[in-house]
Amino acid sequence: MNAVARHIHPGWAIIAPLLVLVVALYLGPILNIMWLSVTDPEPGLGNYRKLFEGDTLLRIVWTTLRICVITTVFSVTLGYSIAYAMVHCHQRQKNYMLTLLLVSFWISILVRTFSWLMLLGRNGLVNNTLETLGLISAPIAFMRNELGVLIGMVHYMIPYAVLPLLVSMQSLDSRVMDASRNLGASGSQTFWRIYLPLTLPGIVASTLLVFILSLGFYVTPAVLGGGKVLMVAEYISVQLLVTLKWGTAAMLAALMLAGVLAMLWIMSRFMKLSAVFGGSTR
Amino acid sequence: MQDKQFMKEMLTESAHAYKEGRMDRRTFLALCGASGIAMNAVLAGDAQAAADHVVMWNWGGQSVECHGSAIGEAFTAATGKGVKFDTSGPLEGKIKEMVDSGNVTADVADADLFNAVSLGPTGHLEPIDYSIVSKDKTLPGYALEFGVSVILYGYAFVYDTEAYGDNPPKDWKDFFDTANFPGTRALYKWANGSLEAALMADGVAGDALYPLDMERALNKIKSIKDDSIYWGSGSEVHSMVVNSEVTMAIVWQNRGRNMENDTDGRFKLVNNQAMAMPGAYIVPKGNPAGREAVMQFIATAQEVPAQLKLLDCLGMTPSNPAAFGEIPEDQQPYAITSAMNIDKIVYNDPTWWGENGGDAVNAFLEAIS
């Protein structure tokens, strides 16, 4: 017993139940998926080879990445200005803004997706109004294409972008900015050289959050894309449920997982991830 | 659909908890209410191994009521066994998963006949017992080893009478002709029906479709890609039509009547060259109620009264030839095997789809995305 205790810290005994749970309920199924990706339909790397055999899979991955990057850029930029406005306005307005943000955060993704169809669809409010006013002669195709997917996704993601930025901006010491002005920097210099670098952990956190969540988007592309915008999540679902190519589905899932982990690893080379996720920088 | 599955599992769990006293009744009912799922749907998931019930796995909505009144009542009267429903939708992947996991909770799935071709030989289905089920009470070629067609649905199209009032489109050729019939079309996203329509538009005869010439079909599909959007569910195409997002749409023909009604007749159903799809009842391997009970259930569904009630309630066309002559007058334009339509339709080949469906769907997705 003593021999064991010398090698293994007794503290492990306390967290052992949790560890066992995590391994059994979380890592187990993930390993199962990875296993499936090299064994179904036949053992080997055949599923991974498929990536390079035709351009279909690569194109789907490319579409997914492109849409996720654009979504992330717009969500974080818009989210940054919203968070900035919230931090720097009166408490009462801030409460209104926070309420509106959280309300849209809580509304089901399906409802939000379909409301875009009503607003911007072919016979939606915007197109009908513009046509009645005589500004356009034919409806503008906002929906059922990639633009529609992007509008829907950016709208869905903005609250996710705002919240980490808000936390990061609120924790800034405003005296630093005052000091910068006092030392003769202009307003924009203070912003670009002091404010922005100080909120960088928040930007990274919201970028990661938005990008990773976007990778798994399913409902919005399926509905607003009109069937022409095929992203990985929907393709995986089709392979699982309709075409029974579970190996392909598992391969794509493993690929996404590896991509996300690689991204976190690269980020961790440049900054402390604990700071990004709200821990202390020290 | 994933949400529904999750809800079902969550509620089944809480039903167990309630039974064992770990959860009070009020909490359980609140959960049921909050998730908007009828109690019987939950209890159905819980009804495994209940030999006095047959659990039918269907797609929810009206079908619970309709399957209950059209088949369930007659089945209960004849055998004394009840019918319960699992409404989470028996997609092929879900049937495979259910059988592979060894936890089979459904007795009969309201699926497609091509599912019987792809899942049967891999050991996921019980063979149909043709000493109880009749091969004569369905169309020839639609009584297979692992599944039998009980109803037909079809792929037909609707068009906007305001867009094409004087010169309405008559067939698939017109549907694919964007020069003479300008406007956006909606096609089915999972290839089925869309491929056959494309081939017929390209001049292939309705009885010479199989094996499908994929390249030819996909080229035709791609030729109208800029004027097409694609739907994945019946409700999706319904809203595309009702909101006039499209001027023509391939639809499940059994929904055509609702679309005509909901647009006050602005959209009209065309059944010419409609493709009859054999909807089939298939039995997951090791189903809890046992083979005999479920075969009796399927046999009940084949009877003429059940067939006519399914038509009346769900718009599903009878597949039993004895029922064709008894299709009521007002259903004639909408039932694809009615005297009015039967000479104009073509028939789906479930064997081709069962063997090639997966690759066809992927090729189709590649072409449209």
Automatic annotation (TrEMBL), chain A:
Family (UniProt): Belongs to the binding-protein-dependent transport system permease family. CysTW subfamily.
Membrane topology label: Multi-pass membrane protein
Location of this chain's protein in the cell: Cell membrane
Organism, as annotated: Ruegeria pomeroyi
GO cellular component terms listed in the entry, alphabetical order: plasma membrane
UniProt-recorded name of the protein: ABC transporter permease
Pfam families hit by this protein: BPD_transp_1
Keywords attached to this entry: Cell membrane, Membrane, Transmembrane, Transmembrane helix, Transport
Gene Ontology biological process terms from the UniProt entry: transmembrane transport
Source organism superkingdom: Bacteria
Chief localization: membrane
Domain ABC transmembrane type-1: 61-267
Residue stretches spanning the membrane: 12-37, 57-84, 96-119, 147-167, 198-224, 244-266
Automatic annotation (TrEMBL), chain B:
One annotated GO biological process: thiamine transport
Location, primary (coarse class): periplasm
Subcellular location: Periplasm
Keywords attached to this entry: Periplasm, Signal, Transport
InterPro entries (UniProt xref): SBP, TAT_signal
Gene Ontology terms: cellular component: outer membrane-bounded periplasmic space
Pfam family for this entry, one: SBP_bac_8
Taxonomic superkingdom: Bacteria
GO MF entries: thiamine binding; thiamine pyrophosphate binding
UniProt xrefs under PANTHER family: THIAMINE-BINDING PERIPLASMIC PROTEIN, THIAMINE-BINDING PERIPLASMIC PROTEIN-RELATED
Membership in a protein family: Belongs to the bacterial solute-binding protein 1 family.
Name this protein carries in UniProt: Extracellular solute-binding protein
Protein source organism: Ruegeria pomeroyi
Organism phylogeny: Bacteria, Pseudomonadati, Pseudomonadota, Alphaproteobacteria, Rhodobacterales
